[in-house]
Design goal:
Elements (H helix, E strand, L loop, with lengths): L43 E6 L9 H8 L2 H4 L2 E6 L7 H6 L5 E5 H9 L4 E5 L7 E6 L14 E4 L6 H9 L9 E4 L5 H4 L6 E4 L3 H6 L15 E5 H4 L6 E6 L6 H23 L1 H10 L6 H15 L11 H13 L21 H12 L22
Parallel strand pairs: 1-2, 1-3, 6-7
Antiparallel strand pairs: 3-10, 4-10, 5-8, 5-9
Helix pairs in contact: 1-9, 1-10, 9-10, 9-13, 10-11
Length: about 375
């Protein structure tokens, strides 16, 4: 059975909206793109564009702002929320902001269309994407998706799934029934789909915050199976800090980039060592999600970063090459790939993150988190 054609209905933390449509989007009218503008108390004004709304997916940036790490580096940072009509990498390429957070494959697609952007710090070292199913469906690997109703968001979020199915010998166009998935897990919980796309830090928590009608208690992890694309070998790099490629030719912007990365990574280190406090900072910054959900999210985000053998933010060549390979070779149900040619040499650089890590290390900051241990989080009904 051929897949249904999908329309996008908000893929939560993934929704950079039509990121692969690559249409330019206007940002907030009060956001300044001038990195040379004078901020408060003589600080340099810098604008960071997020790829979604305020939540713990971005806890490190909010922590860096709250703890004064940006100010310590001489920066007055304005964090701009994303939304369904905002493409962060386009905002950056168009000069509307100074830095942006975006998934690597989506940003590479924008680069292929002419966006001058460079990955200067790979904050998430691992993919957070899962395919979630009830235990009784017996779906534990990509091969088990054969003949199933498989939910996914589309618009660039589907390529790990499609690569996983293809690697398992399935034709995504004929061997599964693809179902448009909304920004919730209702279709999975109601039985309309057999396996749903989810992020470890968001949608997966939603099913664990839901009540099991058979018991009257919340579902637990024992009720579900998950396919992790890191285990399947088709994971793609996700949240990274992107800078404007042409502006990187300017010495002042280079120096500012090192400072921005340094303070941002210090914020993520704070979130690693103080997950509850980082959660509180995000909630106070305007998150609409509940306390237990945000603590879960902080904890799961930490797992995507730590431990970091080479130092947080370093771009691993093997992980990069796998992301590019999937982006080049995997076709979705419309026959499209993310990109059609190898990215050029300006697609990423470790130059600035290396300098930032050297400065942090010299200050006695633990940049590898070799002893990191996640905390135990108890989710409450509805994530409250």
């Amino acid at each position: 059975m051929r897949p249904t054609r999908r329309t996008f209905a908000g893929a939560g933390v993934l929704a950079v909206a039509a990121a692969l449509a690559l249409a330019g989007c206007s940002g907030s009218s009060d956001s300044s793109a001038s990195s040379s503008a004078s901020g408060s108390a003589g600080l340099t004004k810098v604008t960071l564009q997020l790829q979604w709304v305020t939540q713990a997916q971005f806890a490190g940036y909010y922590a860096a702002l709250d703890q004064g790490y940006y100010a310590d580096e001489g920066l007055d940072v304005d964090i701009v929320e994303g939304g369904v009509d905002i493409v962060p990498q386009t905002q950056l390429a168009d000069g509307a902001v100074d830095y942006a957070i975006a998934w690597v494959p989506k940003a590479l697609a924008s680069r292929e269309q002419g966006a001058g952007i460079t990955d200067v710090a790979q904050v998430f070292a691992r993919s957070g994407t899962l395919q979630v199913s009830f235990k009784d469906k017996n779906i534990t690997t990509a091969a088990d998706l054969a003949g199933k109703n498989v939910g996914n968001w589309g618009y660039g979020n589907e390529f790990e799934l499609f690569a996983g199915m293809t690697k398992a010998g399935l034709d995504p166009a004929t061997d599964v029934t693809l179902v448009q998935q909304q920004f919730d897990m209702n279709a999975l919980l109601s039985g309309d789909i057999d396996a749903a796309q989810a992020m470890t830090y968001n949608e997966y928590a939603q099913v664990l915050e839901a009540t099991n009608p058979a018991t009257g208690a919340l579902y637990t992890a024992d009720d579900f199976n998950t396919i992790d694309w890191n285990d399947e070998g088709t994971a793609m790099l996700q949240d990274a800090i992107w800078a404007n490629t042409s502006k990187l030719a300017d010495a002042a912007y280079q120096d500012q980039t090192v400072k921005f990365i340094k303070a941002s990574l210090k914020g993520w280190i704070y979130a690693r060592d103080n997950p509850e406090k980082a959660r509180d900072i995000v909630v106070a910054s305007g998150s609409k999600l509940g306390n237990s959900h945000q603590l879960w999210q902080t904890n799961e985000i930490n797992k995507l970063m730590w431990p970091s053998t080479d130092g947080i933010g370093m771009i691993d060549e093997t992980a990069w090459d796998q992301t590019v390979d999937v982006a080049l070779t995997t076709k979705n149900d419309q026959g499209a790939t993310v990109i059609t040619a190898e990215p050029d040499a300006d697609a990423y650089t470790n130059e600035y993150v290396t300098k930032a890590l050297e400065e942090l290390t010299a200050e006695g900051v633990d940049v590898t988190g070799s002893s990191f241990t996640p905390i135990d989080v108890t989710l409450e009904a509805g994530g409250n």
